[in-house]
Amino acid sequence: MKLSAERSYANPEAAARKLVELASGIEPVQDGRIHIEKINAPFLYTLKASGAEFGAGIKHAIEKGWLEMHESGPYVRLLKTADAN
Q1: How confident is residue 3, by pLDDT bands cut at 50, 70 and 90?
Q2: What's the pLDDT tens digit per position in 45-72?
Q3: Looking at the domain covering 12-79, what would its CATH class be?
Q4: Which of 33, 30, 29 is nearest to 67 (CA)?
Q5: What is the pLDDT of residue 82?
Q6: Which residues, at least 6 apart from 73, have a Cβ–Cβ distance to it below 8 Å?
Q7: Are 19 and 43 contacting, i.e. CB atoms less than 8 angstroms apart?
Q8: Rg (Cα) of the chain, in Å, rounded?
Q9: Contact 78, 59 (CB under 8 A)
């Protein structure tokens, strides 16, 4: 018997791909910026992921060149989809 369910987004690659998928469905505001809470809220509350999984996913997506974090912090910019890499 398994005592805990396996986390869907425990793998940073899977989390990053899901975050890019969420970001690609959001209309950017100014200069291609997407408010971070527009991807944070569905990832945490709809998909039931953890804050650590979100952080690892964002970091992985930035390292892969899929997302860019704005220097002020509350925005990301979609650079390319995860499937293009």
Answers
A1: very low
A2: 999 999 999 999 999 999 999 999 988 8
A3: mainly alpha
A4: 33
A5: 67
A6: 36
A7: yes
A8: 13
A9: no
